[in-house]
Design brief:
heterodimer, A: alpha/beta, Rossmann fold, five-stranded mixed beta sheet, 20 helices, 19 strands, globular, B: alpha/beta, 36% helix, binds iron/sulfur cluster
């Protein structure tokens, strides 16, 4: 692709859009995910394409299984989520390499180094290794488009799910991307094959043997593929680098030699040894975990230098490359940027004004309302992961001697709050849970979910009733209230907190941005 | 290998001011002019009224999406209180457009949503991208009030270089 040209076909695409377009051109027929920064735009892009059957799923575990099964059923299929989303699908991921695929299946996991929008900065590459699936790492949006095509080919050739690992700096960088034509791939027939698709111990044992054989072949492939590319220039200094970090180094040291790793699991040991033989001094550059480092250390090559462990924290930036070369530690700079805050007119403001006044312990969850922890409210006291607003409410209630209120958003409740509520009721927990129902998945930009009654494609569908499901899960009382009615809201909450019941209050008022976007249409 | 000539711009301000939209227009204008462009964005939590920034780099070929030594040719700041964040990141011969922000605010008066377009106009004066590319870029990015946007862009473009 020549970038330096004026072309009607050229678009300014983010890494997410480019990846989605690449999947589309590969003949993608099914896609599922759950919104989460920095991954959201992948499914959003695909939802506009009529050839792709596409969904927001209830959560990542559901998305993963539906998408994997669609591939086993014979359609090229894709799963997309943020890094912590893949945790939710971990159970499914771990056995997916055993059963393999039929048509290609690609898992897109978007990491968030520096955590501009996450609760941790775990490294998805480790998951690929643990789950024993091949790992591709594009360095730019245009590579994301090319790599996802390769991923489908590898998946079908080796009968295995393939991970494409992205990072925020690639997901949300835009660059020139040329559109190509879609290749239609015929649906592959599904053959009954219990030994392959029914994972009882005896079958799974055979599949594990088969998986190890597939991995041997994949390793040989990783040694040969041009995804792992040696560029010899100045032989005095070389870099082994992956992801966007490759480009930081390439621009900072244009004269140096490079081994660019685009496929780092199975690890191409021989190519790495070969590179280290050709170049005098080699530096390994990678964000987050010492993933390449551990593989390379095991090879026993002597002329290699790694980053100081302090660089495992946060995003690597171009200016860090020099510090790593000099063997320095990372200086964790304080940023002076202004913190995010709830929008003016946000319905959550009423809730946290009241919770502050009531001086209760609040178990929080993930969404815009997590900002209730910060001034002026300072009245949200825990937040671990999706669904923890309810489970932490239960655990805290069982151990502390003060009133505890659980707070969870509508989308988050559907994602992983329902099981927590059933558990609380089943185990006789008393107290009050607020479901903050703003009618959308607000923090990621306003996506639909089962309780909104619309699909990702904007079609009407069955609407989950939060009232009915809270009741069915075992809440003793279920109320619905508009938080803007201050007095009524306060009276209700005070009353419910004092009762010896498990109460759910659905605090219903739409997100301001949702109202604005509906007005625009 | 010779260092490749790249132009670095940073747009910054506060979520909701149109920082990302202005950067998007700049990106398209450069692309339409035949440049390779890389542009960074912020999404999610960071957008809720917090600080927002977008780097744009363009030239014959751009490797890194972030400027290598964190220094840029142009600072386009849309919020006076945010200016300090990058004021020391200007290259020696770079241009800081903060001096035009007051003019932009006067020009748009209560139509604050056009401040970003006015500032784009000012920036365009300093770049050798033809006006036609800017106009097409605006048509691609703005879905509403295209004519008004073009008018404020033109005002800014005229103002460019005067301070
Ligand atoms: S996006 Fe909606 S829910 Fe989130 S802070 Fe703004 S108004 Fe509140």
């Amino acid at each position: 692709m020549s970038l330096h040209r004026k072309d009607e076909n050229l678009f300014l695409f983010s890494g997410n859009e480019a990846l989605a377009q690449g999947a589309y051109e590969s003949g993608l027929q099914f896609a599922a995910g759950y919104p989460g920064t920095p991954s959201t735009e992948i499914i959003e892009y695909l939802s506009h394409l009529k050839e792709v059957d596409c969904q927001w799923s209830v959560n990542e575990k559901v998305a993963f299984e539906v998408a994997l099964a669609a591939a086993i059923g014979g359609k090229r299929s894709l799963y997309a989520s943020k890094h912590v989303g893949l945790n939710v699908a971990m159970d499914s991921l771990m056995t997916s390499s055993y059963v393999g695929v039929n048509a290609g299946f690609v898992i897109v996991s978007c990491d968030d180094p520096g955590m501009p929008s996450s609760q941790n900065e775990q490294d998805s590459r480790c998951f690929a290794k643990v789950a024993k699936i091949p790992l591709l790492e594009p360095s730019s949006p245009s590579e994301a488009k090319e790599f996802v095509k390769k991923a489908f080919e590898i998946s079908e050739q080796f009968d295995i799910p393939v991970m494409v690992r992205m990072t925020t700096r690639i997901c949300h960088t835009k660059e020139n991307v040329a559109l190509g034509l879609r290749t239609e791939i015929p649906v592959r027939p599904f053959g009954v094959n219990a030994q392959k698709y029914v994972m009882v111990p005896r079958n799974a044992y055979q599949r594990h043997i088969n998986l190890e054989e597939r991995l041997v072949k994949l390793k040989a492939w990783a040694e040969k593929t041009s995804l792992n590319k040696i560029e010899i220039s100045d032989k005095k200094i070389g870099f082994i680098a992956n992801s966007v970090v490759y480009f930081y180094a390439k621009e900072s040291y244009p004269e140096a030699s490079f081994l660019k790793l685009g496929m780092s699991f199975p690890f191409p040991e021989n190519k790495v040894k070969d590179f280290c033989r050709k170049v005098k001094k080699v530096f390994v550059l990678e964000e987050l975990e010492p993933f390449l480092e551990e593989h390379i250390r095991a090879l026993g090559v002597k002329n290699v230098q790694f980053k100081d462990p302090s660089f495992r924290v946060g995003e690597l930036r171009p200016e860090d490359i020099l510090s790593i070369v000099k063997g320095k530690k990372k200086e964790h700079k304080k940023t002076i940027s202004r913190p995010p805050s709830l929008c003016l007119g946000c319905p959550h403001r009423f809730v946290f004004d009241l919770l502050k006044k009531l001086n209760v312990v609040v178990a929080g969850d993930i969404g815009c309302y997590t900002l209730g922890f910060s001034p002026p409210y300072e009245s949200l006291h825990t937040c671990l992961c999706m669904g923890s607003g309810i489970t932490f409410f239960e655990g805290l209630s069982r151990s502390i001697d003060k009133k505890v209120v659980g707070v969870i958003g509508d989308s988050t409740f559907v994602h992983s709050g329902i099981t927590g509520l059933i558990n609380a009721a089943y185990n006789k927990t008393k107290g009050t849970i607020l479901i903050l129902d703003n009618g959308t998945t607000a923090m990621t930009g306003g996506q639909s979910h089962p309780a909104t009654g619309t699909t990702v494609k904007g079609e009407l569908t069955k609407q989950l009733s939060l009232e009915a499901i809270a009741q069915a899960a075992g809440a003793d009382t279920v109320d619905v209230i508009d938080p803007a009615k201050h007095q009524e809201f306060e009276e209700l909450l005070r009353r419910r907190i004092e009762e010896n019941n498990l109460s759910v209050i659905i605090v219903r008022r739409p997100c301001i941005l949702l109202i604005k976007s509906q007005k625009k249409q | 290998m010779k260092k490749i000539q790249i132009t670095d711009v940073i747009f910054y301000g506060v979520g909701g001011q149109g920082v990302l939209t202005a950067a998007e227009v700049m990106g398209w204008a450069a692309l339409l002019n035949g440049h390779h462009v890389k542009k960074t964005e912020v999404h999610g939590m960071a957008q809720r009224g917090g600080s927002v920034e977008s780097f744009i780099r363009f030239g014959k070929q751009v490797y890194s999406p972030l400027p290598v030594d964190s220094h840029v040719d142009f600072l386009v700041c849309l919020h006076p209180e945010e200016h300090v964040r990058f004021k020391d990141n200007l290259k020696p011969r770079g241009v800081d457009l903060i001096k035009y922000l007051e003019k932009a605010r006067e020009a748009v008066a209560d139509k604050k949503q056009f401040t970003n377009t006015f500032m784009l106009g000012v920036l365009s004066h300093y770049l050798s991208i033809p006006e036609s590319c800017w106009l097409t870029a605006m048509e691609k990015v703005f879905h509403r009030s295209i004519e008004e946007n073009k008018a404020f862009f033109a005002q800014g473009r005229k103002m460019g270089g005067s301070l």
